[in-house]
Structure prediction request, 183 residues.
Amino acid sequence: MESRGNDVSCSAGGVNKFASTLHWGPSWDNNKWDLTHGEYTHTEALSNDYHVYGLLWTPDRLITYIDTEDNVVLSVDMKSQSMWEKGGFNPNLDNPWRDQPNNAPFNQEFYLIFNVAVGGTNSYFPDGQCGKTWSNTSPVASNDFWNSHGAWYPTWNYPATNQAAMKIDSVKVWSLDGTETYT
Prediction:
């Protein structure tokens, strides 16, 4: 789950929007995230209340949802075709998932990662929108971002408030067969 957290008026995405995205492929430059991406728009700022961000992960399907399982944000079918086929990868590339089930690489354990990302140069934050103070093509984009902190840092209202913080009430994980629970 990812969200830009910008003001609602930001056309690229505001505090009422988030996305679910799987980043996958045989290499970083063959990332087929655009084939496994879904977006959700809430009626108000998502920060106004706690929400359940759910992930159902079976050998045949990966689904993300918000608050209730019927409010699906992303649904990825891994039964009808392999992820290699879904990606439409060049057949001349070495398939690292050859002789694996259709859901490879999602047939192995992964880590849950929680972070607050503030930018990047991959166009997730489009140039020239929402007060972005750096350019995707700049060779020193991270420096540009920091050097312009006078423009964006005050919008975080920190340390006066924690409005810009990621607040997590709990994280729960269950195994498919119900024999293991992690909290």
In short: Residues 17-155 form one domain. The helical segments are 83-87, 141-147, 149-152. The radius of gyration is 19 Å. The beta strands are 17-21, 37-41, 53-57, 61-66, 72-77, 173-174, 181-182.
